Amino acid sequence: MRFRVDVAALTPQMEWPDVHGAARGVIYDLVRGQDSALATELHDIGWNGTPLRPLGLCPPVFPGAPRKKGTYATSNRGMLRLGSPVPRIAACLLAGLGGANELRWGRTPLRVNGVQMEAPPEHSSGVAVFETVSPVVLKHDDRFLLPEDTGYEERLAHNIRHKADALGVASETEVEVLKAGHRRMFRAGKGLRIGAPLTVRVHASPALLDALYDWGLGLANNQGFGWVK
To answer: Is 191 a residue whose pLDDT tops 90?
Structure first.
């Protein structure tokens, strides 16, 4: 399940390091407020015997906010999206959002104006075209990969199969990159994340396609990377 959260920023701009850097703390706090043991397990260990954390989100965006070079402008009309393919985790997110009047996104307070569930598209054909709104992060041998690198599609397919194993669904998949955006680099927490937004065609089971829609593509989804439009 995934959710859209309508928010109003209470400051005129957000610090750039907070855009992705604050994401993980926000999402863990929502889970922790409902199930502290689950939040600790996800943070310290992962899910279902794997180091993966089935949590995804898109950091706050503010359509129509005045753009100014070097700043991440906010407004009183913004939104963020988050979700999880695991019902227990998704239920914690929804309950946490339902009881929240305000979210603290790093140094920026966000007033919560409403929460809506977003149903997944129809995936019964076993084929989906996913467009991400944030860069997809992939690594191999401690090196960030970009779509033009040799073996990129295979590494993305490997990541998808790994997610399928964590969720206990069929892992067979084929991936084709249809379009890639420009290289982007963000600071998230204590490190850097490098990637590019993608449009990809994925062949997989309907259950796995639904899960990717709720979770995201690539690595660092709980920091707001690889979120599917």
So the answer is: no
